[in-house]
Amino acid sequence: MTFLGISGMQYSGESLGKSRILLAEDSNVFTSMIGMRLKELFDIDIEICRNFEDLQLAYDRSTDPIMLAISNINLPGAENGEALEYLIDLSIPTIVFTGTFHQETRDKLLTKDIVDYILKDNVFAVEMLAESVCRFLTNHRHHVLIVDDSPTARALLSSRLKRYNFRVSTAENGAKALEILKKNSDIGLVITDYNMPDIDGFELTRRIRSVRGSHELRIIGVSSSSDRHLSARFLKAGGNDFMLRPFIDEEFYCRVNQNLDTLIQIRSMRSARSVGDIKNVA
C-alpha cells in the first residue's frame, strides 16, 4: 500500500514487518487504532505493553533487538515518567505519544534525545504517529553530509541526524566536502555552514551545483549570522533552503524531511517518465 503522510511523505516500499516495535500505552482505543494502522500500512505487528511491568517483561523475555518504542509519558506502575526513563536508559529509540503537554514537558523530552513526540490532541494523531514511525524505519536510506569548520557544530548536527536514524558523514571544510561527495554518489542532502575559511558556503554550493543538480542532491545552508540577506545569496548560488542558528529541533527535522521528500518525488517522477519513454519507443 502506498502511504501518503500528513506532511507529504510518500512511501510505497517493501513491508517493514521485520521491525520489532513496542507500544507502551494503556488506552484500549489508541492501542487498537495504532496496531491496526501500522499493520495495514507497513505490515508491522506491534507488541503492546499496557503497564510498566509489561514493558519490562517485553524487554527481558526476548533477545531480539527492539528497533523502536512508542511510549506514553505515564503508564500504570510508572506514573512519573519511569517508563520513558527506562527506555532511554536502554538506548531504545523512542517516540513519545502523549496527551499531557506544555512547554516545560517539551523541553524535558528533547533533552532526553527522543526520536519524536506526537500529541494525542487531534484527529490526525495516529496518522502523524504512523508517519513518524515510517520515517524512522526508512531514514537509514538517506545519506546526509554535514559541512562545518566547527567540531562542536558538526557533532551537534551529526547527533541530531543520527537520532533520527540517518546515515551521516561530516567534513571540516569545503575541499573535504567535495572529496566526500565525489566518493559517495548516494549523498542526497548537504547541510553546509556559510562562514568557512577555505571555501565558504556560497562557493561550495556553486561548485556542487556545477556537477550535481537539485534533482540529485539538496542543499541547506546554515549560519549564525544576523544578516537576513544570506538566505537570498544561498538560494541564488543554487541552495534549496536556509536556516539560522540556533535551530528549533522540530523545525530543523521538518526542513530536512521536506527537502528529502522533494528529492524522492523528483526521482520518482523522472523514473516514471523514463519508463514511459522506453514503452513509447518499444
From TrEMBL:
Keyword Phosphoprotein: yes
Annotated Pfam families: Response_reg (PF00072)
Source species of the chain: Aliirhizobium cellulosilyticum
4-aspartylphosphate modification, residue list: D193
UniProt KW keywords: Phosphoprotein, Transcription, Transcription regulation
Keyword hit for Protein biosynthesis: no
Residue span, Response regulatory domain: 20-135, 143-260
Transmembrane segments: none
PROSITE patterns recorded: RESPONSE_REGULATORY
UniProt name for this protein: PleD family two-component response regulator
A single GO BP: phosphorelay signal transduction system
